[in-house]
Amino acid sequence: MPYPIAKQESRTADQEQEITVEISFLFEICPIEYTDDPRYPRIEGQQGLLWPSRHRRAFREVMNQPRQLYRWENGIVTPVGSTDPARSVDLTHFRTASIFAHAETSHLLVVMIDCTQQHVAHCAQGDWKLLSFRHLPNGMSYLDPVGELPHLAARAVRPLIPELLPSVYQYPHRYENEPPPAQRGLCGRLPLLLALAAFSGSEDQLDNILTSYLDFGTWYGPHNDDHGRTVDRGMRIRVWLDPCNRPGSTRSILKDLEQGEYGAFYAPQ
Question: What does pTM read for this prediction?
Answer without folding.
Answer: 0.90
